[in-house]
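Retro notes (design track)

What went well: tokenization of the new backbones is finally stable.
What didn't: we kept losing track of which sequence belonged to which structure.
Fix going forward: every design gets posted as structure first, then sequence, in one message. First example under the new rule, 503 residues:
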């Protein structure tokens, strides 16, 4: 039996290898002719080409610094001689770094549009799961086509999918990366091929990609601030009929954290809603309702909560909101609702930042922690129960507490010692522990203690203001959603002289 199974194994390997070989030659043959077709099995990385993108910098809102850095590339594509005559090395590649939806692709297209050159693009994520060799030949193809029509822009989206550091990767991606490196080195920059690549995880990229003569420039494409969001809304409403009551400024204020793609989506949803309701123009309500659809998830009326659950959710949300209102150091609440959303949230509390803020004090962060834990605190204080509804809050609070202890130097126990490194403060809030195991254990205890203290204080605040908590929660139960102004009316009536912060 043993021998037989050995033979079977060897046989099946032989069949597999033979099959692979056949497939490979078929794929390679297809590649020879027209690389743009693709579509065989999983080999889906396609090269897209646009003769004229029709996109210019006017279509990209905000991002002034990114535009300024890219201006030189455009100028170079217009007047290569200005650079070559003086003997200057021309920029070959630049890396656009930023969260998804911030407009990296749009910017790359705008560079092509401004320079009036063709635009080639390919996405790194499509190389995953491809047959060995296919990725590499697609890359070769891309550069061949680009060389034929230079000057042009070559755009590689999600480059981290091919370019991540070689330690933990399959051979096929390796070949693709090597091909890419080789092609970039082979590009004669005086011909005017500029390679732009996009990623939101620059720290994972293979160092070889970042070396001089490759992607040696880094252009940060940030999430938009208030002004940036307003500008983005203006760009996307250019061709939309707006009713008199529309206040884009208010929409921009309510959408802190949203990226360009969210805002483009929001405007389109609003226009669709206006059409559905048979109106000729988009009004403010369309925009605000769409904001909830796009950013908070659609209202999901068919999630039926029991009365008891509804009550729990209402108290939970008011717990968050009331603590922020009383502590006054956290952002004012703009809306509280217990209408479930498709995002899975059974209710939520929205905050409205009064102004863009770049610095937070320890007191403000502590207030944030208390209000984040305020949902669970309300469940405990009022009903003596703990629900699963607080899991997201707990993750957020823990992450914040960990940051305070290990990055911001805000605990007595750990003092000023930074025990974690932040890879890129612009992009993610992921800090990596960077200390001995003993210290890490101490950090964990400190984080736990900080959370416990804030939770105790949150429960105390709610116990001290129990009547107010009941009153607002009942009102919310009745109305299902209330505004920040309604909330503050209750709070101010109960605390006319700011007694809330007495302890
Ligand atoms: P990324 O490549 O960074 O993921 P995209 O460029 O694909 O983002 O953005 C998707 C869409 O979102 C764009 O086509 C555009 O409609 C909109 N958008 C994103 N950023 C901006 C911006 N800064 N200005 C105007 N529109 C934007
Ligand atoms: Zn909560």
């Amino acid at each position: 039996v043993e021998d037989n199974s050995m033979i079977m194994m060897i046989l099946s390997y032989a069949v597999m290898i033979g099959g692979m070989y056949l497939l490979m030659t078929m794929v390679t043959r297809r590649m020879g002719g027209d690389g743009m077709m693709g579509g065989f099995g999983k080999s889906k990385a396609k090269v897209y080409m646009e003769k004229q993108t029709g996109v210019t910098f006017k279509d990209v809102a905000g991002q002034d610094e990114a535009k300024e850095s890219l201006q030189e590339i455009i100028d170079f594509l217009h007047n290569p001689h200005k650079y070559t005559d003086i003997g200057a090395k021309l920029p070959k590649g630049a890396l656009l770094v930023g969260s998804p939806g911030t407009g990296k692709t749009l910017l790359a297209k705008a560079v092509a549009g401004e320079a009036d050159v063709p635009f080639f693009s390919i996405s790194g994520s499509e190389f995953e799961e491809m047959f060995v060799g296919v990725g590499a030949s697609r890359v070769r193809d891309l550069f061949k086509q680009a060389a034929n029509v230079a000057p042009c822009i070559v755009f590689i989206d999600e480059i981290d999918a091919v370019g991540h550091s070689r330690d933990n990767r399959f051979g096929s991606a390796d070949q693709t990366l090597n091909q890419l490196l080789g092609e970039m080195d082979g590009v004669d920059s005086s011909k005017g091929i500029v390679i732009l690549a996009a990623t939101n995880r620059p720290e994972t990229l293979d160092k070889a990609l970042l070396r001089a003569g490759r992607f040696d420039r880094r252009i940060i494409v940030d999430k938009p601030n208030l002004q940036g969001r307003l500008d983005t809304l203006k760009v996307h409403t250019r061709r939309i009929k707006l009713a008199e009551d529309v206040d884009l400024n208010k929409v921009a204020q309510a959408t802190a954290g949203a990226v360009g793609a969210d805002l483009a989506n929001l405007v389109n949803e609003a226009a669709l809603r206006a059409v559905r309701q048979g109106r000729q123009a988009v009004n403010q309500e369309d925009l605000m309702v769409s904001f909830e659809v796009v950013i908070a998830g659609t209202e999901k009326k068919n999630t039926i909560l029991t009365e008891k659950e509804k009550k729990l959710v209402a108290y939970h949300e008011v717990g968050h909101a009331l603590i922020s209102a009383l502590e006054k150091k956290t952002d004012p609440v703009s809306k509280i609702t217990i209408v479930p959303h498709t995002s899975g949230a059974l209710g939520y509390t929205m905050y409205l930042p009064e102004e863009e803020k770049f610095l937070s004090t320890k007191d403000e962060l502590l207030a944030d922690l208390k209000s984040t834990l305020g949902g669970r605190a309300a469940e405990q204080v009022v009903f003596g129960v703990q629900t699963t509804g607080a899991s997201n809050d707990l993750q957020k609070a823990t992450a914040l507490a960990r940051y305070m202890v290990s990055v911001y130097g805000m605990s007595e126990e750990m003092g000023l010692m930074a025990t974690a490194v932040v890879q890129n403060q612009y992009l993610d809030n992921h800090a990596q522990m960077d200390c001995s195991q003993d210290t890490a254990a101490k950090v964990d205890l400190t984080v736990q203690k900080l959370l416990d203290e804030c939770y105790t204080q949150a429960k105390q605040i709610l116990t001290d203001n129990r009547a107010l908590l009941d009153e607002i929660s009942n009102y919310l139960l009745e109305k299902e959603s209330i505004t920040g102004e309604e909330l503050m009316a209750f709070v101010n009536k109960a605390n006319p002289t700011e007694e809330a912060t007495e302890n």
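Added context from the reviewer: Residues 13-42, 298-302, 499-503 have pLDDT under 50 and may be disordered.
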